[in-house]
Design a protein that fits this description.
Elements lengths: L18 H5 L8 E4 L5 H12 L3 E6 L2 H8 L6 E5 L5 H14 L5 E4 L10 E2 L3 E2 H22 L5 E5 L23 H23 L5 E6 L13 H6 L11 H6 L3 H4 L1 H8 L10 E3 L2 E2 L22 H17 L1
Parallel strand pairs: 1-2, 1-4, 2-3, 4-7, 7-8, 8-9
Antiparallel strand pairs: 5-6, 9-10
Length: 325
Amino acid sequence: MSVSDQVPVQSGFGPKSTGRDVLDGSDLSGKTAIVTGGYSGLGLETVRALAEKGARVIIPVRSPEKAAEALAGLQGDIATAPMDLADLTSIADFASGMRDQLKRVDLLINNAGIMACPEGRVGPGWEMQFGVNHMGHFALTRALMPLLEATPGCRVVALSSTGHKISGIRWDDLHFDTGDYDKWQAYGQAKTANALFANALSRRLKATGGLSFAVHPGGIFTPLQRHLPKEEMIALGWLGEDGEPSELAKQGFKTPGQGCSTTLWAASAPVLEGKPGVYCENCDIAAPTIPDSPMARYGGVDAHACDDEAAERLWSISEALLAEA
């Protein structure tokens, strides 16, 4: 696939559609879903919507206490198991447990993430945003491949972001080993990596009819912003001087219930059959970015995030990084 495959399908849903809207009329009984970050923000709303429709939902959790508190009011077949995306051993242990317990995984939703955080290192020294957002999910998905391959028609959804427009892959300095660390460049690279991951994975699921997609959920106030000081969010135009959401945010930002809708659309929409690896937003396939458009920064997908050659190059690099870890 390439940016030329990014053709909207006029799904009938839109920016303000909710996860419940998207799944209206669906019956997910007998389906098993794994949702990373499923006890906070968008992930929590994703889990709520899936469980309401009968899916069995398993959530990897870094903090069992926080997860138990957040999930206490949800109804349905919801379970948790320990895992930390920054810890490869815990990822391997979680996946091993899933392979022992389950016969299939219908939906893998790689939802968890960190954004614009101070410089940090995880694993064998990987830059933290790349390491958690991309490599952690790469390792998890690789370890769950036997279950995904055993599930005809499985779907994997990787949460990318319009942040991919900030940076492509820094092929010569993935981990800011030689260049100065920039938290937004690091976030942009990680979100591009999420999109390229879905592109490459789509080819590896093809034999069993599986599909993978990248999604931009939209702008939403969630704990993802926890590393941003109020002053920076005011400068970005997200908050007013009073610390409350700005008019721009009120008009353009989504609620968590609306923010999970594109994830759930990508996980379930029949119209996406035969369209592997595409990048989606607002419950539709995203159109290519229109250069110099006033909305170029906020909508559409850049060519560097849906390039087959770059996707395969990143997949090979990621495999090598895992092998060396």
